[in-house]
């Protein structure tokens, strides 16, 4: 190629490059400065101008906001599920950006003012239903979330019961102890249940509330005697947790946990933690059924309920830790003729005079009329009502550190339940109670303030040097005690804390047994006669308490009673005597000598 041709070729390349540069410059100008309708052609196809991209973004945002606000378009759905793909979690584009919803967002201005004023007179059902609609997730995913619902301070009124059919975490501003329990109140009318937590297979939606949490609320019923006894404050048909809350004033029980395969409910592993159950028409807490087991109630205060404070009829049992009861059994205890009685029947209390039939009325003890427990009235409405009640024959209920205030009916707790410590360990329990009790160094099958039919195994007994004790009654008058006797230097078994039955000498014993020095340890002593045989064949065998070979001066003897003489033995003498004819000594009894001593 000549120099001229080379220059011409170079000039052509420069011209082509300039042309390309000019075209690119034009496209760049159009991309940056084009209107909101313009597209720029590129090798990969048309690209919208910056202005057009902004317009499309605004339009999409507006559409998305409308969808989020419209429940019919999936607005507010809150759900997620784990997948096997790398993205791990897929979430609906129409879902809310948060799993935390406040009921205030759903209240009308009038409802909000009514709630925040504490009046609680305007029905908030429509707001609640709208909130639940926001929380519904479309289908049974592997890991459905537990959305949190915040309830405002004030009084929220619902004109009808509220059925919970999905997992939910409801949080208010109250507590389960006196003084801090009114922050958030949920009010219901008379003859109305409160919150019903459904099992997955018991509700219309076939969704369940297992795993739900309710905390920080005061659930207020419409009246203790203003409705059916089936209208409960919290009806746990599924396993949920109730925390830092109060349930008050329902015509049924405060918390009702009745679950069994027969009714397709399962509340096993239920939880009550710092909960107050007061002033309800039946029980504070009622637990019953084959699937109401392995739950725990911690710091539950059950007070002023018509029947029992805590009534457990579960199949396998539950645990009660640091619970408290007071003034329960308002329809279960009466005053009559200077005594107080507790009712044992749900049907015969009004037709049976207290003190005439122990199967209907049990004696609490002497007592005057009490403001909570008035005089018995013929034809009155009376029911079984105790501070605590545990009756399941298989229920291994454990009551640990639980307390019961005085004046109310006693606790009625049957084996195989166990009571450890607390005021229940020292009483009162009904005489019919058979639970194992461990308290105040005593292990007993039950306790009773009347000291009747009391059987106790004691580890130690204050002021008596007792290590072990078996007692038939509370005053220990028929007790059998093993004690350390420092004077004898021996372990002694005593009857009634006084009569020495037997002893085992120790290393520093002072007992000489008739010799110059103590006999040392390991010797069994039996100071009183021994009865040999059984029934009519029983005969006494012991050491004679009179001197030498003289027959006993007094006493009643049976034929065959045999004694060894006390004192020195002599060659040619006899070891002892035996009664050959029974009767009074010195009158009709005849004795013969036995055991000649030979050299």
TrEMBL record:
<feature type="region of interest" description="Disordered">
    <location>
        <begin position="18"/>
        <end position="47"/>
    </location>
</feature>
<protein>
    <submittedName>
        <fullName>Uncharacterized protein</fullName>
    </submittedName>
</protein>
């Amino acid at each position: 190629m000549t120099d001229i041709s080379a220059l011409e070729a170079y000039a052509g390349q420069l011209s082509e490059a300039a042309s390309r540069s000019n075209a690119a410059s034009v496209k760049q100008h159009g991309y940056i400065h084009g209107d909101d309708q313009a597209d720029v052609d590129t090798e990969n196809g048309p690209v919208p101008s910056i202005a057009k991209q902004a317009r499309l973004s605004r339009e999409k945002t507006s559409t998305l906001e409308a969808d989020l606000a419209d429940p019919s378009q999936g607005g507010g759905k809150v759900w997620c599920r784990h997948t096997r793909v790398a993205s791990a979690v897929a979430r609906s584009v129409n879902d809310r950006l948060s799993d935390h919803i406040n009921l205030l967002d759903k209240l009308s201005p009038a409802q909000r003012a009514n709630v925040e004023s504490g009046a609680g007179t305007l029905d908030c059902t429509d707001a609640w239903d709208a909130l639940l609609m926001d929380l519904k997730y479309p289908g049974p995913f592997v890991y459905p979330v537990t959305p949190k619902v915040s309830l405002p301070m004030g009084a929220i009124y619902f004109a009808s019961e509220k059925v919970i059919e999905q997992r939910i975490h409801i949080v208010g501003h109250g507590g389960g102890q006196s003084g801090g329990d009114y922050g958030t109140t949920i009010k219901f009318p008379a003859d109305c249940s409160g919150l019903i937590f459904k099992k997955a297979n018991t509700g219309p939606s076939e969704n369940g509330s297992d795993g739900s949490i309710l905390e920080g609320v005061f659930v207020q019923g419409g009246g203790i005697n203003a409705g059916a006894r089936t209208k409960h404050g919290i009806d746990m048909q599924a396993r949920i947790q109730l925390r830092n809350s109060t349930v008050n004033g329902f015509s049924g029980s405060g918390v009702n946990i009745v679950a069994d395969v027969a009714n397709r409910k399962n509340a096993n592993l239920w939880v009550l933690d710092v909960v107050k159950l007061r002033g309800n028409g039946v029980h504070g807490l009622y637990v019953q059924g084959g699937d109401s087991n392995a739950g725990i109630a911690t710091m539950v205060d059950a007070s002023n309920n018509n029947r029992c404070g805590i009534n457990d009829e579960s199949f396998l049992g539950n645990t009660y830790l640091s619970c408290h009861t007071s003034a329960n059994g308002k329809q279960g205890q009466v005053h009559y003729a200077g005594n107080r009685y507790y009712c044992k029947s749900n049907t015969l209390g009004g037709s049976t005079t207290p003190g005439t039939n122990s199967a209907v009325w049990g004696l609490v003890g002497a007592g005057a009329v009490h403001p909570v427990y008035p005089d018995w009235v013929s034809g009155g409405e009376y029911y079984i009502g105790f501070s605590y009640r545990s009756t399941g024959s298989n229920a291994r209920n454990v009551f640990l550190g639980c307390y019961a205030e005085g004046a109310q009916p006693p606790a009625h707790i049957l084996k195989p339940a166990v009571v450890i410590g607390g005021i229940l360990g020292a009483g009162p329990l009904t005489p019919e109670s058979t639970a194992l009790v461990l308290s105040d160094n005593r292990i007993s099958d039950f306790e009773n303030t009347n000291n009747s039919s009391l059987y106790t195994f004691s580890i130690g007994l204050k002021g008596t040097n007792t290590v072990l004790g078996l007692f038939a009654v509370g005053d220990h008058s028929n007790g059998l005690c093993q004690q350390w006797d420092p004077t004898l230097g021996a372990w002694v078994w005593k009857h009634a804390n006084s009569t020495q039955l037997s002893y085992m000498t120790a290393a520093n014993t002072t007992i000489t047994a008739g010799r110059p020095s103590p006999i040392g340890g390991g010797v069994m002593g039996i100071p009183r006669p021994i009865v040999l045989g059984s029934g009519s064949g029983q005969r006494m065998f012991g050491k004679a308490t009179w001197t030498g070979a003289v027959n006993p001066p007094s006493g009643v003897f049976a034929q065959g009673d045999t004694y060894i003489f006390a004192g020195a033995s002599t060659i040619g003498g006899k070891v002892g005597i035996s009664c050959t004819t029974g009767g009074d000594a010195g009158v009709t009894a005849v004795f013969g000598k036995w055991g000649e001593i030979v050299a």
